[in-house]
Amino acid sequence: MGNKKNIADKPLSRHFADNKKTSIKMSPIQKDARDRIIEKIKHKTYNLIEVNCPICNSRLKALISEKDAYGLPVHTSICKDCGFIYSNLRFSDETLKDYYVNENIILDRGVVLPEKYLFDLEIEKGKIIMEFLKNHSLLKRLENKLIVEIGCGSGGILAYFKGLGFKVLGCDIDRKPAEYGYKIGNVDIIIGTLENLKKRLRDEKMPIGLIMYEQSLEHMPYPKDEIIKVKEIMSEKTILFVGVPGFRDIDKHYDSDILQYLQPGHLLHFDLQSLSKMMSEIGLSLITGNEKIQAVFKNGEHGNSIQTHSYENNIKYLKALENNRKIRYLKRLPKMIIYLIVYNIGHIVKINLEKIGLLETDENDKIFKIINNARRFLDKIFYL
Ligand SMILES: [Zn+2]
Is the distance from CB of 320 to CB of 346 less than 8 angstroms? Predict the structure, then answer.
């Protein structure tokens, strides 16, 4: 950081400059979490480290963003060698462990007691995964087999599978949600990582039918090491489900705004091709998948024949996204102007009616709201 910047160090556009501004609406709870994290960074309780491309280990990269959705100073770059997009200035491994246990869910979801919220959300995810597997005729592979999830949170997905009659086993490094899942859903959750889960599997007689990483692989700093280890517990018939945010889905999912999709825990930004290529180099082949990303892999040949989008292609794609974001914003402008005019006229009328006694004075100071709205509106214009 602090170094003199050359042209190559500039982010994709001013939108991504480290100006501490947030790009999403945050609740007071989220703001508190963000401020706490900034303090921890300042006092070196949380440390940021510079890393190479987690896929090809290259140091050559181009900066995309100097901040994330919350305005935190994590950097996202694109590898000049393989085109992979990743968080190159990220929390250290030690910091990540603390962050996932103490801050991640509060910052991401804005809830202080997230266990029940997570569990209910995961039940819904369980239904979606089941539907996906059914639509791709993969359910037969699960009959009389064990269902495993790595990074299972409070185990709602596993609880859903358990409700359908499957035997399930999960692991998560976050103790509180894991204990909640055990209490509420009676789900067998090991507190720890894949390593801890593997120890338990030594005593397990039932073969594994399905292993899931649902929104957890993108949080792992060493994805290849993780998948090499998980492959060791996969039989010829085991299928591996991976759900990660897909960066080719940003247009639909995040209003074309790449920034909204960046957060300190999202270390890896896959598209279906880059994910399939990484898997294929480890010896897993794609059965089916989409750009959301929901993808299923099985044991296969080691290979590197999968073509991924090049650095140049991905840069082009990111620039097109950034243009889309601006266009979307401009399209909303007339609506916002009309809204502001109506809102302000309404308030002026209201205030005057109060003055002459035709309306009771409101306890809330509406003037502040008007000023804040106007300020936010102007902010947005200059922000663009
Ligand atoms: Zn690379």
Answer: no
Distance CA 152, CA 283 (A): 24
The residue assigned the tokens 């009771």 is 360
Domain segments of the chain: what residues? 7-106, 114-315, 332-383
Distance 56 CA to ligand 1 centre (A): 4
| Contact criterion met (CB below 8 Å) for 210 and 166 | no
User: Is residue 251 very low, low, confident or very high in pLDDT (cuts 50, 70, 90)?
Assistant: confident
pLDDT tier at 71, thresholds 50, 70, 90: very high
- For residue 55, how far is its CA from the centre of ligand 1 (angstroms)? 5
Alpha-carbon gap, residue 354 to 369, rounded angstroms: 17
Question: Residues with Cβ < 8 Å from 201, sequence gap 6 or more?
Answer: 169, 208, 233
Q: Identify the CATH assignment for 114-315 out of 3.40.50.150, 3.30.420.10, 3.40.50.2000, 2.60.40.1230.
A: 3.40.50.150
Tell which residue, 251, 218, 273, has the closest CA to residue 317. 251
The rounded Å distance from CA 173 to ligand 1 centre is 28
Tens of pLDDT, residue by residue over 29-68, are: 999 999 999 999 999 999 999 999 999 999 999 999 999 9
The pTM of the full predicted model, rounded to 2 decimals, is: 0.84
Query: Ramachandran region of residue 46, left (φ > 0), alpha (ψ -120 to 50) or beta?
Result: beta
Give residue-wise pLDDT tens across range 88-114: 999 999 999 999 988 988 888 887 777
